[in-house]
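Record Lipoprotein E, 291 aa.
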Amino acid sequence: MKLNSAAKKYGLSLAAAMLVSGCVNTTVPTKAESPKPDDLLNATLWMQNSVEYKANVRNIFHLAKIQLDDALKNKRRTALPDMQKPGYMKLPPAIILDCDETILDNSKYEAYLIKTGQGYSSTTWKKYVQNKVAEAMPGAVEFTRYAASRGVEVFYVTNRKKVSEQATYENMRALGFPMGNGKTDTLLTKGEKPEWGSAKGNRDAMIAKRYRVLLMLGDNFGDFTDKASGNLKQREAAYREYMSHWGTDWFVLPNPAYGSFESSAFGRNYHLSPAQRRQKKIDVLNSWSGK
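=>
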């Protein structure tokens, strides 16, 4: 059936009105934007979801427990031979642990950075710490409680700041970590004393004056020696210098998300953009030629 001229005019007018009013969707569907590159993604995915990571961490705490028992029997053993004074064999035993990514799992914070497209900032980190949502690393509570049951003082030397010490203490206590008897400060934070900066050597030395330090556990080279602040070649030399400690009285927890291993690759120049840092990291890789 053919439409008369009046009907045609009415149809055209109706279509125009619908376009103006937005009743007709003329938007062409577009593909969802791809996630932006983020160096934290695979590391955080592995730490949160892989059984390999959980097993790796438990392996380390299991080995540390074996070495702890041996060190309790052998009074000459110490994890800080350069800091212990003559007669240290008669001192009460202690162990020193870092907190973040050693006994406290902060992968929720890393996941937050990934999902919001942000980089680390002291503002968001402080808010996260104050929320007291960090979880315990697999086997960490059991290991520290075992050490305490053997009469070993458990010290936590962390670069969380003094302002966050109370929140950290409450978070750790709620998770079941031994936090001392109230007479000894066992949670030693950055800035708690004016001389306590990022380097941990002075805090370790203070403990070594009063205790025989049996073991040290951390996720970063700087948790064991202040020589961690060197360049890549210097760090490699220091690693080899302390070879006898690894797996005996120094235990490193895996942390592929962040640490001095990453910052040393771009010269600790945090003014560089994420893309520039990534390029610096690529530049130091030892690559197959492809031939």
